[in-house]
From TrEMBL:
<dbReference type="InterPro" id="IPR029045">
    <property type="entry name" value="ClpP/crotonase-like_dom_sf"/>
</dbReference>
<dbReference type="InterPro" id="IPR014748">
    <property type="entry name" value="Enoyl-CoA_hydra_C"/>
</dbReference>
<keyword id="KW-0413">Isomerase</keyword>
<dbReference type="InterPro" id="IPR018376">
    <property type="entry name" value="Enoyl-CoA_hyd/isom_CS"/>
</dbReference>
<dbReference type="GO" id="GO:0006635">
    <property type="term" value="P:fatty acid beta-oxidation"/>
</dbReference>
<dbReference type="GO" id="GO:0016836">
    <property type="term" value="F:hydro-lyase activity"/>
</dbReference>
<dbReference type="Pfam" id="PF00378">
    <property type="entry name" value="ECH_1"/>
</dbReference>
<keyword id="KW-0456">Lyase</keyword>
<protein>
    <submittedName>
        <fullName>Enoyl-CoA hydratase/isomerase family protein</fullName>
    </submittedName>
</protein>
<dbReference type="GO" id="GO:0016853">
    <property type="term" value="F:isomerase activity"/>
</dbReference>
<dbReference type="InterPro" id="IPR001753">
    <property type="entry name" value="Enoyl-CoA_hydra/iso"/>
</dbReference>
<comment type="similarity">
    <text>Belongs to the enoyl-CoA hydratase/isomerase family.</text>
</comment>
Length: 265
């Protein structure tokens, strides 16, 4: 199937091919996040969630230098508190939409992921980094702190001690360190992050979408509650997946020793 390019955004390029949507943040020189980019990312997640031709979403940055090198500091520095609070709400809602999208979201980290860029990556389900990618939360050095969920999502992955060290100091760390700390799932040679993300996305796109959605719901929701509540969430998600046509098809195909024909319902 040939790819379909959707030209509907000022700072995003969206292509859909074989059930995979690749969303490229394209704001030279380093794809910094401003209020317009936050709004466009929020809209594209809504649109991809509603698109039956999309089973998986990839987020990446244009060029070879940066995935997203943080928020637009010039925009922030010139804003009053009312404007900052308004923009921060838009940003936080966008990160939440990425995290809770009904479809798996893969970050292809092709370069710097700093501040808001790292927050965006942490909102994704899976992260693949080029070996030259670098990461940091530099906000404290600017007299502020992360405002898009970085203090919360980072500690859930690496633990409080390391999270506090990275947040307090703003230390920049490598892709290999990020992998060792379970921040990224895989490190690949420079320039190959998007290709690796597409390879993984193609595998996920062939899986029954409701089952993927239920796994994501169970993990995300369960991580914010106690074990007993989490088990109830898992049980309800299991029942939902089992009741679908794809749930029946997968089990029958296994007993008949054939490849399942999933239809997304």
């Amino acid at each position: 199937m040939s790819s379909e390019t959707l030209v509907k955004y000022e700072y995003l390029v969206v292509e859909v091919e074989n059930k995979v949507a690749t969303v490229t943040i394209n704001r030279a020189p380093v794809n910094a996040l401003n209020s317009k980019v936050y709004q466009e990312l929020s809209r594209v997640i809504d649109e991809m969630d509603a698109n039956d031709d999309v089973n998986v979403i990839i987020l990446t940055g244009a060029g070879e230098k940066a995935f997203v090198a943080g928020a637009d500091i010039n925009e922030m520095a010139g804003a009053d508190l009312v404007t900052v609070v308004k923009n921060n709400k838009v940003a936080r809602n966008m990160f939440k939409k990425v995290e809770n999208s009904t479809k798996p979201v893969i970050a292809a980290l092709n370069g710097l992921a700093l501040g808001g860029g790292l927050e965006l990556a942490l909102s994704c389900d899976l992260r693949i980094a080029s070996e030259n990618a670098k990461f940091a939360f530099p906000e404290v050095g600017l007299g502020i702190i992360p405002g898009g969920g970085g203090t919360q999502r980072l500690q859930k992955i690496v633990g409080q001690g390391l999270a506090k060290e990275l947040l307090f100091t703003g230390t920049m760390f490598t892709a290999e360190e990020a992998h060792n700390w379970h921040i990224v799932n895989k490190v690949v040679p420079a320039g190959e992050a998007l290709a690796a993300a597409k390879e993984l996305a193609d595998k996920l796109a062939k899986q029954p979408p409701v089952a993927l959605q239920m796994v994501k719901l169970a993990v995300n929701t369960g991580s914010n509650t106690d074990i007993e509540s989490g088990l109830i969430i898992e049980s309800n998600s299991f029942n939902t997946a089992f009741s679908t046509e794809d749930g029946k098809e997968g089990l029958v195909a296994f007993t008949e020793k054939r490849k399942p024909n999933y239809k997304g319902r």
